[in-house]
Amino acid sequence: MLLTQLFVTLFQLPVVISAVRESRPNVVIIVADDLGWNDVSFHGSQQIPTPNIDRLADDGIILNNYYVTPLCTPSRATLLTGRYAIRYGLQHSVIVAGQRSALPLTERILPQYLNELNYTSHAVGKWHLGFFHKDYTPTYRGFQSFLGYYNGKNDYFDHHNQEGEQGWDGLDWHWDYKGNLTDVPEAFGQYTTHIISNRTSHLIKEHDYSRGPLFLYVGYQAVHSANSGDPIQAPTDTVYQFPHIWNLQRRKFAAAMTELDRGVGQIRAALEQAGQLDNTFLLFTTDNGGPPNGFNDNWANNWPLRAGKAYFYEGGIRATGFVHFPAKFGPRRGQVSRDLIHISDWLPTILELAGSSPARLTKIDGKSMYGTLGGMTESPRKEFLVNLDPKTGAAGVRRDNFKLLRHPNDIYNEDYNEWFQAPGEYPFTNATVRPDTTPAQIQCDPVPYGLDLECHSALWDDSICLYDVENDPCELYNLVDNELYSDIVVDLLQRVKAYEKQQVPIIFPPVDPQASPLLHNFVWRPWTDSNVIPST
Q1: What was the pLDDT predicted at 17?
Q2: 205: pLDDT confidence band, cut at 50, 70 and 90?
Q3: N or C, where is the chain less crowded by C-beta within 10 Å?
Q4: 128, 159, 160, 224: the active-site residue
Q5: What is the Cα–Cα distance from 376 to 373, expressed in whole angstroms?
Q6: What's the CA gap between 343 and 69, in Å, rounded?
Q7: What is the pTM of this model?
Q8: Helix (H) or strand (E) holding 412
Q9: Which residues pair with 218 in a beta bridge?
Q10: Residue 116 binned pLDDT confidence (cut-offs 50, 70, 90)
C-alpha cells in the first residue's frame, strides 16, 4: 500500500510542478523615459496617436492615480527595490556619468527575488543605476543578460554619450551576458528604439516556457533627449508624418514617440505569437513626468498638469501607466483605475502574482496591489513620500486627497513650474484616434490669470503649498493659508519630519577623473577595482 502511494505521488509530482510553473505569469516591465501625461492618445492627446499603446491600455487597466518620483534614477531604484530612495541615498538627483555612485549592493532587486522562483531575467535598454564597478552592472544584480547603456542617455544612432563640463565622449552600448561585459560598436547607425524592441521580441520568441517563466525589464531611451548637439532624434521618414507640428523639436519628439509606440506593438505581437499574451503581467510606466518646452533639451507635454520632470508638482510625478494581464485582471478590462498606487508597489505586487508572500518583505515601502488590481480590495495605500532633497530643502508628501510641498521651486528655476500646452495644431479627434475611448482624461478649470506661483505661505511663514489633488489635480488652488486646512498642514509637516529622520545621507560624489572614456578606449565602462561607494 505504501509503495503504491509513493508511486502515485512520484507520478503526480511532474504534474504538480508543471501546474506551479503555469500559474506563475511572465513579467514584462516597459519603462518609457521622460514620457509626458499628454503624449499618449489614451490620455486625450490629439497631436500624437499611439494606437499600439492604447490597444494594450484599453485591454488592461489604465492607472490614473499612479505616481512615480520626479527623476529617473530614484524611480528606477524604487521600482526594482520597492523602497523609497531616501533609504539608500539616491534621493538628491540622478547618477551623473563618472560618479562613483550606484544603487548600493545591500539592496536586493526584483530579478534576484524572481530568480529564486525559477524565473529567467533579462534587461534591455537603459540602466542608470551605477556602473563604476562591475558589481553594480545588471548581470551582477540578477539579470542573465543585458543589452543597452549604463548612463542616462546617449545618441540614438551612434550610441555615444557626451557629458557635461568635462566634454567627455564615449561609446555607451554594451552586451553583457552572465557577468561577461563587452562593448558593441557594431550597433552604430541602428536606431536605439529599434534595437531595444528587436532584442525584447527575440527574448520573448526564443524563451523556453516549459522550463519556467520569463522576466523582462525593458528600459526604452525614448522619449528622453540625446546629446545636446542633436537632442531629439527619430528616423526622418517618421518626422515627416507630423507636418501639423510647427515646432521642429516637438515634431521630432512626436516621431520618437511614434517609434516607441511601434516598439510596444512589436512586443505585444511577440507575446501573442509565443502564446504568452494572456499569461503575462505587463506593466507600462514612465519613470517621471515629461520635460516640457525645452527643459532638459526636450519637448514632452504634461497638459493639463502642472510643471514636469524634476518638479514635485503633478506634471513631474503623476505617471502615465497601465497594466495588462488578462489571465488575472480580465474582469477589469477597459477600466480606468482611481486607486492610489506608487511605483514602489510593483515589487510586492509582482512577487505575490508569482506566488511569493509579500508578508516576508519587512523592509519595503511598497504595498501589494494584487487584490486591488483584481477588483477584490481597495488600495491599501493611503500615503506616499514624493521625495526629500536635503541639499535644497525640497520635500513632498501625499496623504489621502492632500499633497503638501515644501520649497518645491528651489529644485530648479521657476521657468518651468507652470502649465504648458503642446505647440502645434491638433488635427486628430478622440473619435478618430481612439474609437473605443475611455474616461482617462483629466479635466481642469482654466488657469486663473495672475495666479501666484511662488508657493509662499503667510500663515506658516515658509514656502509651503497644500493641494487637494483628488479634486484639483492641476494644482490651481493653494489651500495652505485657508485655516480650515490647518490641521492637515500640521499633520503632513509632521510626516515630512518623520521621513527626514529616516533618510540616510545622499550619495552624490564628485565626478572621478579616472572615469573618462579617454582612458578606456573611448568607451564608458566600469573603471575602479574597489566596489566601495565613497562617502559624501
Answers
A1: 36
A2: very high
A3: N
A4: 128
A5: 8
A6: 8
A7: 0.94
A8: none
A9: 30, 124
A10: very high
